[in-house]
Design brief:
The complex is a heterodimer of chains A (635) and B (774).
Chain A (H helix, E strand, L loop, with lengths): L7 H17 L3 E5 L2 H6 L1 H15 L4 E5 L11 E4 L6 E3 L7 H9 L9 E4 L14 H4 L17 H6 L4 H7 L3 H11 L11 H10 L5 E7 L8 H8 L1 H15 L1 E9 L3 H17 L15 H4 L2 E7 L8 H8 L23 E5 H13 L1 H4 L10 E8 L5 E6 L4 H8 L9 E6 L6 E3 L9 H6 L8 E6 L4 H15 L5 H18 L5 H17 L3 H5 L2 H9 L1 H10 L11 E5 L9 H5 L5 E2 L7 E2 L9 H5 L7 E5 H5 L1
Parallel strand pairs in A: 1-2, 6-7, 6-9, 7-8, 10-14
Antiparallel strand pairs in A: 1-3, 3-4, 4-5, 10-11, 12-13, 12-14, 15-18, 16-17
Chain B lengths: L1 E4 L2 E4 L6 H7 L23 E4 L6 E2 L10 E3 L3 H15 L41 H9 L22 E3 L9 H9 L6 E3 L6 E3 L16 H5 L5 E3 L10 E6 L8 E7 L2 E7 L11 H11 L9 E4 L2 E4 L2 H12 L7 E5 L5 H14 L5 E3 L5 H9 L10 H5 L3 E5 L3 H4 L1 H12 L3 E5 L13 E3 L6 H15 L4 H7 L3 H10 L5 H5 L3 H13 L3 E5 L3 H4 L3 H14 L6 E3 L6 H6 L21 H8 L2 E4 L13 E6 L10 E4 L8 E4 L5 E4 L12 H11 L10 H12 L17 H5 L22 E2 L2 E2 H4 L1 H14 L2
Parallel strand pairs in B: 1-5, 15-16, 15-22, 17-18, 17-20, 18-19, 20-21, 22-23, 23-24
Antiparallel strand pairs in B: 1-2, 3-4, 3-5, 6-9, 7-8, 10-11, 11-12, 13-14, 13-24, 25-26, 27-28
Helix pairs in contact in B: 2-3, 8-22, 9-19, 13-17, 13-19
The chains are: A alpha/beta (635), B alpha/beta (774).
Chain lengths: 635, 774
């Protein structure tokens, strides 16, 4: 696009006008259709709306938006209609749609059990959605557009401040851009927390033409979905961050390494790059040539590279190898990617959330940014809150927020009146922190001190039913399977640890096992080649530190305190509670339960395989089937 | 600039790693994954060292040295780490013997041939004597493995010729994977799976045969364990002796350690200190024992008595020859040498023919077209000298003409790959289908068969026209540059490029590379169909291209026949004496003329299986294997190159020494010994040599240089062969009958096909036929 044609002002005017027009229309439904929404049935809800339109002949417009982060409340619909406040409903089923829409559109009656709140200010005694316990303590600078704008519309993005950061950056010298990012104190959101500005500076200073910018979207942690949600809900934000990075370091092309398991994110991002190029934000002559910027940025293009499902490819050198068509195996650094990355060229690799933070730093300034969060870790952190938690979902909080606030205020605590046991931060190689650490402020240093890591933002909450030995074993089995196999400490060391943990879980633990685990863990941490191996023992080390008694119970007392490990439990039927319905007997896969209908049933402990089917089928309110220590039954 | 290692200061060089400086200063740091021919990999973690101020231990192999670094290589903490890693490795590698205090002294399982399919201990492992794990386990003081032993239970792969793989012994150091892809350019093997299941293997678990392996054996040679082993030598137990010598199966002449036992050659291991730097190919690495130890080797001289060939002793055989030769006039005798003879044998052969028997009719049976332009290559007046492996490795542009190096001279692919890893660009010009280099070069020019030369002439003309060469440089070396320019100007190239049917864009790509070429090397193949009859024109064009690029001396001929260069240089060419000087008295008959009946008696040093030789009145065959038994009058058993001493000359002009590593079968003798005794028998003086040194002195004197120096490369003045050799007629498209035929050499040694004597090679050759579409 030439300079005559490109006018950001004109684009912005038009985008804003259309955005206001859309929001003044009568009868617009904004429906969250990110992967989480779709999984919860959003597509069916849209079908129901379309059917309703046809049947009633009413003029309704559906706008598909991303995920606002309240995943537990999906599918969510935000209704905009004249005469009522802008209300948001959650947990809708297709069958709810006709009645709900009739109520709203005909009777202007918006009260419903599904009502979550008002988008914007509190109105007519309905609380604002932002005052919802899950939202109120959040501070959204990465996610503000998610669930609000149509991710396929570049206009929506521009109307909400999009590409303003790029516009500002292009008015500055690349070195000034780097300086601004350095001043903001932004640290890499991929987990290691390396200062982003410094990384850019090294890449800028590295000799060589044809530098690269890579967005690392190979989100492989079990239970993590921060990058997916961001890319599905607001892809332009990440793209804008990449373009600014390219301008700052002098890159001519970029890659986003996006895992193939995220087809919607891939589709959204591809669409975003196409639209950005059409609009003149990408490709040749970015934002017209009346700006003073480097020639190289004029031709900045972004390619989407689909990852094939290897956890280790989130490691930057493995990721680069994979982009070049090689096996995803890390290599020792130096040389760092800033010196020698894709095809040996200087390369910057940033996480999705790092890049998504860049535009706002550029548009609102580093001094504003550094007021958020803590001094050493400014800004916000995005977490995918999962596990035994009432409000699971995607949240964004200022750095330094305590775990307690995240779990109990935002997350709504532990469901089913269970007791909190542990929280695991940072993905499979993070540590498990106990209740005594709940007041820990979340940032890079504090988490590391407690034995865990920031990681890229997974947060798994565990309650009293979780056996910490088994949890450690599970996470280790994940990292063990995902080890690339290159270095022996990681490939064989984690396997040996896993063997020991499996032994403990199966009741074969011995006195020496804990000592051996404590000997192997530092060996693996110190001798492994890459971050995967260097952090893999963390779940074992932290559970040994905070939950040693559980290990000891497994080994010495041959019991599992959480009643989780099959080797140490038995099922028993309380003769007082049993009504003799026979359901347990019917569902027992090994015919271990005997008893005539109407009489108390009995479990043959010899034959029982401890699958727990009897427990889950027992209909009595107080549960006649009990899970107890095996010793208790054997005694 | 200095660093401190273990308390002692050392001078450092910028850019080297901690491991490199340690190696230079003889400080031992254990490593399992590094290999001196490969870039650092950083996998095994054995080389972790302490650097003051560093975050934890650092791998010595990939950490660049920095001024003032304080490094410790053997602290207790490091030894604990290393011991831990070694313990982990050995928890899944048969290790009972490694941590046993008896180790090599074990009485129970001492030595002896291995008679077990699965390796259950060191004494049953093919790598027993050279295992690197044992050495490192010793160094770190590992005495006990506290984990239960895990046998991975991956099936051993024994479905390939030459190479066996037992993944259960593999420690995943990745040397084999890297040497295959980086040095040999094949990528036949790779890492498979991940986590604890990771192993080295082929795609879809196919046999090596099906994944493009050429069985060069480089993977076997770099393997630190017994995971990769040579199929045939695995069962021999300890080898006796190793003799450094040369493989003569192609002109690259790789140096090998020939391992022998019971007077026979048992194995050949590429010599690390040789020109080939530890690399070989399937022929040298695996084919020599079955080829040389074949039961059908000739063991006694045979003479035809009453129509039957009967074994006799040497005296009788030589007497018989003397008697029969006396019945011919000198001009009626023809002499055909083998390109596999040593320099000394070749020298004596031509001396016997010319000085003793007075016949000028001497030639080789070589089919190599380089024979045609060898004059241009070697003549001190004309030639530019030969390019060396170093020339290739340091080249910026490499032009490969008419050769699939993977078949003709595999060692050269290693040099090309080394150059490529340093950034060199490659152009392949070849008309034959199935060239395995095709997918590995930057520009592939595939002209129609017979249009190679017109295309080269076109390239040359365009380069001259572009005036992008250094006129001073070229002018100083080519007295008639103007004439050359005029000649090319007049040469009608309007049709030259079209002749080849190569897409224009491709030609332009090649020209762009050639224009920039500062350091050009041409590897000239032996595609007979392309150059037969126009060898000199081809040579002239090669030289012109090199001259324009300012790289005289950059021509490497692919000589696929053992010692062809040495044999020619010793004067075994019609009309050329030793040193290729014109032989007084003019040229005799060449190979074709002799075979067409130009002579009545023929002394043949290499069988010609596809020729009918019944027309000769008297035929002597001298070879290691029997051939022509129905028509030969005398059959003389000769030694092979593993059984004789002597010197040879490689395709890059290096003199190599042959050393005997095995005994000749029966009464067989080295060729030079046979010629010497025959010379004496014929009663001529000048054959009374005390040994090889006498012969070397004599031809050194004849050539005007000391032995070993006769091809010392000097900057030579370029001459005006352009006008004498370049003839416009040569640049029309030539008719070729075998259009579109895949080039697959017959891989012979002195007329005996390798496939006939080496069953595994037959399997490979059949597979190559299928693979290349022949």
């Amino acid at each position: 696009m030439s300079k005559e044609q490109f006018s950001f002002h004109k684009l912005l005017e038009e985008a804003r006008r259309n955005w206001v027009e859309l929001h003044e229309k009568d009868g617009v439904l904004y429906i969250g259709t990110a992967s989480c929404g779709k999984a919860a049935g959003a597509s069916k809800v849209i079908e129901a709306v379309e059917k309703y339109k046809v049947e009633t002949g009413r003029d309704l417009q559906v706008v598909e938006v991303g995920c606002i982060g309240m995943c537990g409340f999906e599918p969510m619909v935000y209704v905009q209609a004249h005469g009522i406040p802008p209300v948001v409903y959650g947990g809708l089923a297709p069958r709810d749609i006709p009645a709900l829409l009739d109520d709203i559109l005909v009777r202007k009656q918006y009260e419903s059990e599904h009502l979550l709140g008002v988008l914007g200010e509190e109105a007519r005694e309905i609380p604002a959605l932002s005052d919802h316990p899950m939202m109120t303590t959040q501070e959204r600078i990465i996610l503000p557009n998610c669930g609000i704008i149509d991710p396929t519309s570049i206009e929506h993005y521009i109307a909400n401040g999009g590409y303003e950061g790029l516009r500002k950056a292009l008015q500055m010298d690349p070195l000034e851009v780097i300086e601004e990012v350095k001043k903001s104190g932004l640290r890499g959101r991929g987990g290691a927390g390396f200062p982003t500005g410094l990384k850019w500076q090294f890449t800028r200073q590295a000799e060589g033409e044809g530098k690269y910018v890579i967005c690392n979207a190979d989100e492989g942690d079990p239970g993590a979905f921060m990058d997916r949600s961001t890319l599905e809900g607001d892809p332009h934000k990440v793209l804008e961050g990449m373009i600014i990075a390219a301008y700052a370091i002098g890159a001519t092309s970029g890659y986003i390494y996006l895992r193939a398991e995220y087809p919607l994110a891939i589709k959204r991002f591809r669409e975003a790059t196409r639209k950005a190029e059409e609009a003149g934000f990408l490709g040749e002559s970015i934002m017209g040539s009346n700006f003073h910027f480097q020639v190289s940025v004029k031709e900045f293009r972004v390619l989407v590279k689909e990852g094939a499902g290897a956890f280790v490819c989130g490691e930057e050198t493995a990721l680069i190898a994979s982009i070049m068509g090689k096996r995803g195996m890390p290599r020792p650094k130096p040389p760092y990617p800033a010196q020698s990355g894709v095809h040996g060229k200087p390369t910057v690799i940033n996480n999705v959330k790092t890049l998504a933070t860049i535009p706002v730093i550029m548009s609102r300034g580093s001094s504003w940014f550094s007021t958020i969060g803590t001094k050493k870790s400014p800004g916000t952190a995005v977490f995918a809150l999962t596990g035994k938690i009432a409000n699971s979902g995607l949240i964004e909080v200022p750095m330094g927020t305590t775990l307690r606030k995240i779990i109990y205020e935002i997350g709504g605590g532990i469901p089913d009146r269970k007791k909190f046991k542990a929280v695991q931060t940072g993905g499979p190689s993070g540590g498990c922190l106990p209740a005594s650490q709940l007041d820990l402020p979340v940032n890079y240093e504090e988490l590391a001190k407690a034995g865990s890591i920031m990681g890229s933002g997974g947060m798994v909450v565990m309650d009293e039913d979780s056996c910490m030995v088994d949890i450690a074993r599970y996470f280790l089995s994940f990292t063990q399977e995902e080890s690339c196999g290159k270095c022996p400490p990681c490939r064989i060391g984690t396997k040996r640890m896993l063997d020991i943990l499996t032994g403990i879980k199966n009741g074969e633990g011995t006195e020496d096992d804990l000592a051996m685990l404590e000997e192997l863990a530092p060996l693996i941490k110190n001798a492994s080649l890459c971050g995967l191996g260097q952090t893999a023992p963390n779940p074992v080390l932290t559970t040994l530190q905070y939950f040693r008694h559980e290990y000891e119970a497994h080994i010495h007392q041959k019991r599992c305190p959480a009643h989780s490990c099959r080797a140490f439990i038995s099922y028993r039927i309380d003769s007082d509670a049993c009504i003799g319905c026979g359901l347990c007997k019917k569902h027992c896969p090994v015919n271990a339960i005997s008893g005539r209908k109407g009489t108390t049933h009995v479990i043959d402990q010899e034959a029982c395989v401890r699958c727990g089917m009897c427990l889950s089928y027992c209909p009595v309110k107080g549960k006649a089937v009990e899970k107890v220590d095996r010793k208790e039954v054997e005694a | 600039m200095s660093v401190t290692i273990n308390g002692i200061q050392y001078e450092m060089k910028k850019g080297e790693s901690i491991l490199e400086i340690a190696k230079r200063e003889n400080i031992y740091i254990p490593t399992l994954c590094t290999h001196h021919e490969l870039p650092a990999f950083g996998a095994c973690r054995m080389c972790l060292v302490e650097v003051e101020g560093g975050r934890g231990p650092l791998p010595a192999c990939t950490t660049p040295i920095q001024e003032g670094m304080v490094i410790r290589t053997k602290t207790e903490e490091l030894q604990v780490l290393r011991r831990g890693i070694m313990e982990l490795i050995l928890s899944e590698h048969t290790s009972a013997c490694i941590v046993c205090k008896d180790k090599g002294e074990c009485k129970e399982f001492k030595g002896g041939p291995i008679k077990t399919g699965r390796v259950t201990g060191c004494r049953f492992c093919p790598e027993d004597q050279n295992c690197e794990l044992i050495k490192i386990a010793d160094y770190v003081g590992l005495e006990e493995i506290r984990f239960p032993f895990t046998y991975k239970e991956i099936p051993s792969r024994r479905d390939d010729p030459f190479i066996e793989r037992d993944p259960n012994l593999c420690i995943l150091c990745g040397r084999c994977v890297r040497v295959c892809s980086q040095l040999r350019g094949r990528e036949a093997i790779s890492f498979l799976y991940r986590g604890h299941r990771a192993e080295v293997g082929t795609s879809f678990g196919k046999p090596l045969m099906d994944v493009g392996c050429m069985f060069c054996g480089a993977c076997v040679d770099v393997c630190p364990t017994g995971s990769l082993s040579s199929r045939s030598t695995k069962w021999h137990g300890e080898v006796g002796e190793s003799t450094e010598s040369v493989c003569l199966l192609c002109g690259a002449q790789c140096q090998f350690g020939f391992e022998s036992k019971w007077d026979k050659i048992m194995a050949a291991v590429p010599w690390e200190q040789g020109r080939n730097r530890g690399q070989g190919c399937v022929r040298g690495r695996f084919c020599l024992p079955p080829l040389m130890n074949g039961s059908q080797r000739l063991k006694y001289p045979l003479i035809r008595k009453e129509g039957e060939l009967v074994p006799v002793d040497w005296d009788e055989a030589l007497g018989f020859i003397k008697e029969r030769l006396a019945t011919f006039k000198p001009g009626e005798l023809g002499f055909l040498a083998s390109p596999y003879l040593s320099n000394e044998s070749a020298f004596l052969f031509q001396k016997l023919a010319r000085q003793v028997l007075g016949s000028p009719n001497i030639d080789t049976v070589s089919k190599d077209p380089a024979r045609g332009y060898v004059g241009a290559l070697l003549d001190p007046e004309l030639g530019a000298g030969l390019g060396s492996l170093e020339n290739i490795e340091n080249a910026e542009i490499i032009l490969i003409v008419g050769s699939d190096l993977y078949l003709d001279a595999p060692l050269l692919t290693v040099s090309v790959n080394r150059a490529k890893s340093k950034g060199a660009k490659t152009i392949l010009l070849d008309s034959s289908p199935g060239n395995q280099l095709a997918g590995k070069v930057d520009v592939f020019l595939k002209p129609e068969k017979g249009a190679e030369l017109p295309l080269m002439a076109y390239l040359t003309k365009r380069l001259v026209k572009g005036q992008l060469y250094n006129r001073n440089f070229v002018g100083n070396r080519c007295r008639n540059l103007d004439e050359l320019e005029d000649f090319l100007e007049e040469l009608d190239t309007s049709t030259l490029a079209e002749l080849s049917h190569v897409p224009r864009a491709r030609i332009e790509d090649a020209l762009r590379l050639l224009h920039q070429a500062k350091n050009l090397v041409i590897i000239a193949g032996d595609d007979q169909r392309a150059f037969t009859g126009v060898e000199k024109e081809a040579a002239a064009l090669f030289h012109t291209l090199l001259l324009l690029a300012g790289s005289p001396g950059g021509l490497v001929p692919v000589l696929s026949e053992g010692n062809a260069l040495g044999v020619w240089l010793m004067g075994v060419l019609p009309g050329h004496g030793p040193g290729l000087r014109p032989f007084p008295g003019g040229g005799g008959l060449g190979r074709e003329e002799m075979l067409a009946g130009g002579v009545k008696g023929l002394y043949l040093c290499e069988p010609l299986p596809d020729k009918d030789l019944s027309g000769f009145d008297f035929l002597i065959l001298q070879a290691p294997y029997p051939h022509h038994m129905d028509v030969a009058d005398v059959v003389l058993p000769s030694a092979t190159f593993t059984e004789e001493a002597g010197s040879t000359l490689s395709l890059e002009g290096f003199v190599h020494q042959l050393r005997p590593s095995a005994k000749v079968p029966g009464m067989a003798r080295a060729d030079w010994e046979i010629f010497m005794s025959l010379g004496k028998e014929l009663g001529k003086l000048g054959f009374d040599y005390q040994g090889l040194l006498d012969i070397q002195k004599e031809f050194g004197f004849t050539l005007g240089v000391k032995p070993g120096e006769f091809l010392k490369k000097e900057k030579r003045e370029w001459h005006n062969f352009m006008t004498t050799w370049l003839k416009p007629e040569a640049f029309s498209r030539r008719n070729c009958q075998d259009e579109g035929e895949v080039r697959l050499p017959d891989f012979c040694y002195r007329g005996t096909p390798l496939a006939e004597k080496v069953p595994d090679f037959k399997i490979l050759l059949d597979e190559l036929k299928r693979r290349l579409g022949a």
